Amino acid sequence: MTDRQHAVDSAVASTADDIAEMRTRGAATIADAAAGALATQAKRSEATTEAAFRTELRAAAKTLYETRPTAVSLPNALRYVLRGMEGATVAELRASTIDQAEAFQRELAQAQSKLGTVGSNRLRDGDVVMTHCHSTDALSCVEAALEDGKEIEAIVKETRPRKQGHITARQLREWGVPVTLVVDNAARRYLDRADHVLVGADSIAADGSVINKIGTSGLAVNARERGVPVMVAAQTIKLHPDTMTGHTVEIEMRAESEIVSDDERADIDDEYADDDLVVENPAFDVTPPRYVDAIVTERGQYPPESIVTLMRELFGETTSEPWEP
Ligand SMILES: O=C(COP(=O)(O)O)[C@H](O)[C@H](O)COP(=O)(O)O
């Protein structure tokens, strides 16, 4: 074991494992869990010097950071908490880190609820939304519309390969929303019945591109062709500061076992072939801004092309500036 591994609390390691294995998933939920894990590290730290405490917290942040690459809410959350780590003694450092992590979690929940109110204003009584994957930001818009007394129906895409659509459907059913669950390939057919496509985001790039669950871009292109507006619900913690300086967002490639079993692979592949069957499983894709009608944040709704103005306001011109609430 390296020193870094020794320094990281078992609760942090287990949170990191939950994120990597997608038992904890979705950009906002991942950010919340990561902030909570840093607070636990701070609480349980046995460091006796200020330097050792800081090293431990950074090691914990690195362990969490290395779990999944696409949702920028994760590094944004880690940066936010580490920035608040202040003090001249271990006790002060501990208290400030825990306070900052708790403030982050509070602001995250408040931002989602504010965003929901903004998003619900786009939904009229009787509207039908089509969803993809499971996004707590997107669902908060539906929840706020329901609280306003509007009747909303949903067409929920299954979302292969991990079927996060089932989580969305379960939540909507709990709220009493009529749900039609469809396979991903049926989306274009059912767009005729939809008034909005409503999705979340893992990252939003400076040009207004939306990085979200694989299949979002195809859905958005089909929606444009059918004249159905595409609404992206994304708190500002989903804004990706590095993209202001031209960096692209890394798309996570997941295990082929999510798509084919060993037996299926053996069944498909020719055992005498010179090369192996290639199976690829990208978890996310990029929807260009021209297919997105509105990005709904806790600060209001933006056309995708103008999101860069908000990014500059929040992060400044340089990506070395950490995320600010
Ligand atoms: O693409 C996904 C989840 O992908 P995965 O299941 O691979 O994590 C969600 O749409 C966004 O993360 C937004 O979710 P939220 O609005 O809850 O942050």
TrEMBL record:
<dbReference type="GO" id="GO:0043917">
    <property type="term" value="F:ribose 1,5-bisphosphate isomerase activity"/>
</dbReference>
<keyword id="KW-0413">Isomerase</keyword>
<dbReference type="GO" id="GO:0003743">
    <property type="term" value="F:translation initiation factor activity"/>
</dbReference>
<feature type="binding site">
    <location>
        <position position="238"/>
    </location>
    <ligand>
        <name>substrate</name>
    </ligand>
</feature>
<protein>
    <recommendedName>
        <fullName>Ribose 1,5-bisphosphate isomerase</fullName>
        <ecNumber>5.3.1.29</ecNumber>
    </recommendedName>
</protein>
<feature type="active site" description="Proton acceptor">
    <location>
        <position position="133"/>
    </location>
</feature>
<dbReference type="InterPro" id="IPR042529">
    <property type="entry name" value="IF_2B-like_C"/>
</dbReference>
<comment type="similarity">
    <text>Belongs to the eIF-2B alpha/beta/delta subunits family. R15P isomerase subfamily.</text>
</comment>
<dbReference type="InterPro" id="IPR011559">
    <property type="entry name" value="Initiation_fac_2B_a/b/d"/>
</dbReference>
<keyword id="KW-0119">Carbohydrate metabolism</keyword>
<feature type="active site" description="Proton donor">
    <location>
        <position position="202"/>
    </location>
</feature>
<dbReference type="InterPro" id="IPR005250">
    <property type="entry name" value="R15Pi"/>
</dbReference>
<comment type="function">
    <text>Catalyzes the isomerization of ribose 1,5-bisphosphate (R15P) to ribulose 1,5-bisphosphate (RuBP).</text>
</comment>
<keyword id="KW-0396">Initiation factor</keyword>
<feature type="binding site">
    <location>
        <begin position="212"/>
        <end position="213"/>
    </location>
    <ligand>
        <name>substrate</name>
    </ligand>
</feature>
<feature type="binding site">
    <location>
        <position position="68"/>
    </location>
    <ligand>
        <name>substrate</name>
    </ligand>
</feature>
<dbReference type="InterPro" id="IPR000649">
    <property type="entry name" value="IF-2B-related"/>
</dbReference>
<feature type="binding site">
    <location>
        <begin position="25"/>
        <end position="28"/>
    </location>
    <ligand>
        <name>substrate</name>
    </ligand>
</feature>
<dbReference type="InterPro" id="IPR027363">
    <property type="entry name" value="M1Pi_N"/>
</dbReference>
<dbReference type="GO" id="GO:0019323">
    <property type="term" value="P:pentose catabolic process"/>
</dbReference>
<keyword id="KW-0648">Protein biosynthesis</keyword>
<dbReference type="InterPro" id="IPR037171">
    <property type="entry name" value="NagB/RpiA_transferase-like"/>
</dbReference>
<dbReference type="GO" id="GO:0019509">
    <property type="term" value="P:L-methionine salvage from methylthioadenosine"/>
</dbReference>
<dbReference type="GO" id="GO:0046523">
    <property type="term" value="F:S-methyl-5-thioribose-1-phosphate isomerase activity"/>
</dbReference>
<dbReference type="Pfam" id="PF01008">
    <property type="entry name" value="IF-2B"/>
</dbReference>
